[in-house]
Design a protein that fits this description.
Layout: E1 10-13, E2 34-38, E3 56-62, E4 74-75, E5 86-87, E6 100-111, E7 118-121, E8 131-137, H1 140-143, E9 163-165, H2 167-175, H3 183-192, E10 208-213, E11 216-223, E12 226-234
Parallel strand pairs: 9-12
Antiparallel strand pairs: 1-2, 1-8, 2-7, 3-6, 3-8, 4-5, 6-7, 10-11, 11-12
């Protein structure tokens, strides 16, 4: 069996500081933008010449936060409620023989100032610090197939759970309005996806959840069929 060594070409800057609550796919959270910072010796303007002529990129990355878990021949996709097993190669699971992921992400711009080459990315599904091993331009004529079948994931997840903010959370939003004018919208978009583990979505409890988004520890709970944001504390 052959072994291969890949070089990390860049690192992701993302508003998602932990893997919990990261969207399942890119494009689901409109305000969840990020950046790809190229590393030496790949941080050369020549390396991205002509890339700004493409609107979207394939970003190839490493599932660095789940590597120690190894691979599994079958997994339980969240889209199936976490109750049905599918072969790992029939899913986008992180528990793969080789922990390689790929995301199709909008390219919003390229900065090449001060010896730094940064790709400005649209809505992504990557945790902060994700190592990137390659990027490739998206070619619609070859890679867009509207007639394709997609098994159990034929349509995008609903992402429509109502979200409201407690009095405390509203006050905290106001405190950070100047620096983060879109904070309410971003948090709402993330939590509308209902990021809870699939096996907990049928629970009727007052369990509280928390996740780091940007520089905020966002705490929330489920109230009936809605999400209540309890607080947004800073570090």
């Amino acid at each position: 069996m052959s072994e291969f060594i890949f070089n990390q070409i860049g690192t992701i800057r993302s508003p998602y500081k932990e893997k919990f609550a990261v969207p399942r796919q890119p494009g689901l959270v409109e305000d969840g933008n990020g950046e790809l910072v190229l590393l030496p010796p790949y941080n050369q303007a020549e390396a991205v010449r002509g890339l700004n002529e493409f609107s979207h990129l394939w970003v190839m990355f490493i599932f660095h936060q789940t590597m120690e878990g190894g691979w599994r021949p079958t997994v339980r996709p969240p889209r199936l409620g976490g109750n049905m097993r599918m072969g790992v190669f029939a899913t986008r699971s992180t528990f793969r023989p080789n922990p390689i992921g790929m995301s199709l992400i909008e390219l919003k711009g390229i900065r090449t100032l001060g010896g730094e080459v940064v790709l400005e990315l649209g809505s992504l599904d990557l945790v902060d610090g994700t190592p990137v091993v390659d990027i490739k331009p998206y070619l619609p004529f070859a890679e867009s197939h509207p007639q394709a079948r997609a098994g159990f994931a034929q349509t995008a997840p609903a992402g429509d759970m109502p979200v409201f903010f407690s009095t405390q959370a509203e006050q905290q939003l106001q405190q950070h309005q100047r620096r983060y004018p879109n904070l309410r919208r971003f948090v709402t978009q993330v939590l509308a996806q209902d990021p809870r583990p699939a096996y907990q979505k049928e629970e009727k409890s007052s369990r509280q959840y928390a996740v780091w988004l940007l520089e905020f520890n966002v705490c929330w709970r489920i109230v009936g069929d809605q999400t209540e944001v309890l607080s947004l504390d800073t570090r």
